């Protein structure tokens, strides 16, 4: 296929000068445009378009923009067959067609263009037939006809047109004379026939144009429908692919879960089997140990004794089983308790029993201290040993009771001193002062403020209750400022507050958000 090299204006001028069919092919880079270009490159199509002016325009080009301003293009590719005489579109092809169909439509367009050219030539010939008719009318023998032809040019032109359209009538005009009215009537009939023919041709052209427009619209609609169907098919294919991938992923997850479960089950069964085998072996070894005598780790005749001190340290020493307890006691005195300020005692760990010096002449074997034993080395004054009744174990409760009794005895003089001090302070107050002792009491009061002390006669329980009661208050007056103040004791905390008749904290109320309301 040979395409015209130039712009749209040059192609139109070339088509009009050659009076040949003008073909415009609008294309882009799509697959359908390539398929349509293959149909244009067919040999049969190239032979038909060899005498035509064919222009190929690409979308987004200047020629494409110029052409679309006159001829609308809805889809690509699109082919226009344009008449060079009228400039109208003889046929329009949208989309892709085969080479055979393209050849047929090209041939039909060429025929339409040829018929239009013939009709235009006939119209031109009819319009310019007046001069020969006048000549014929002048050369005709009858003088009146010539006079009419000369004096009435339109009638002569009609007569000449009738003569050229009807050769028999023109041939017989030399032998048969026609009247003036007959000639005018024939000319009018011929003109009316030409007008009817022209109207029919215009009507047919309009009909063909409408058919071409409808065909182009139908093709455009079909092309859009095919595109929508293709897009719907692509969406369906994509959805099916996604569903298939999701199903495969779910099956893969299920397979992995099943494998994990099987692996856990196998590991559980293996652990249970190993536990059963280990328990069986342990029971077998235990039964074997119960039947067979347990070999001693120490040589026979050796007693290993561990001496444990109160600080947690320990010393281990091996003695002959036949050695006496005094030997072990001597070892402790020389090596462990050499620097202790007081004596020590030896006790067994369990059951707790003191080993006194009375059993020093017994052997370790007789005291069940062989082959292994643990002895506690304790200071002699830490616990009071009790012999007989209860296995001779020391009693920490008795020691604590003795300490408590001693503390109570010491508290009696302290309480007496506290009562005397309180009596002296009370006697120094103005209300209880005597005339003879008022000055001395006032001097003592000026020297230092006085405060209430708990009564010595009060029992410890009552003292603790008074000290722990919230809001208990002792009021005193400062001799320097003359203002009274109070001491409030809450548990182990003493608070000093002015004695102004009320306390803001006592009179105030508290709401739920920790703010005080007066």
Your description of this structure?
- It contains 15 helices and 14 strands.
- The strands form four sheets. The protein has a five-stranded mixed sheet with strand order 6-5-9-7-8, covered by helices on one side.
- β5 (302-308) and β6 form a beta hairpin.
- It is rod-shaped, with a radius of gyration of 70 Å.
- It is 54% helix and 15% strand.
- α8 (153-165) packs across α10 (180-291).
- The protein has helices at residues 8-18, 31-40, 43-48, 62-68, 99-127, 130-139, 143-151, 153-165, 167-172, 180-291, 325-335, 396-427, 438-447, 460-468, 504-507; strands spanning 22-27, 53-58, 78-82, 89-94, 302-308, 314-320, 344-348, 353-355, 372-379, 472-477, 484-490, 493-498, 509-510, 516-517.
- Mean pLDDT is 74; it is low at 129-176, 291-296, 385-395 and 430-473.
- The chain has 518 residues and is of the alpha+beta class.
Strand content: 5-15%
- Give the low-confidence spans: 129-176, 291-296, 385-395, 430-473
SSE string:
HEHHEHEEHHHHHHEEHEEEHHHEEEHEE
Shape from CA axes? rod-shaped
- What is the β-strand count? 14
Mean pLDDT: 74
Distance between the termini: 108 Å
Notable characteristics:
54% helix, 14 strands, four-stranded mixed β-sheet, 518 residues, 15% strand, alpha+beta
Strand and helix layout:
Layout: H1 8-18, E1 22-27, H2 31-40, H3 43-48, E2 53-58, H4 62-68, E3 78-82, E4 89-94, H5 99-127, H6 130-139, H7 143-151, H8 153-165, H9 167-172, H10 180-291, E5 302-308, E6 314-320, H11 325-335, E7 344-348, E8 353-355, E9 372-379, H12 396-427, H13 438-447, H14 460-468, E10 472-477, E11 484-490, E12 493-498, H15 504-507, E13 509-510, E14 516-517
Parallel strand pairs: 1-2, 5-9
Antiparallel strand pairs: 1-3, 3-4, 5-6, 7-8, 7-9, 10-11, 11-12, 13-14
Helix pairs in contact: 6-7, 6-8, 7-8, 8-10
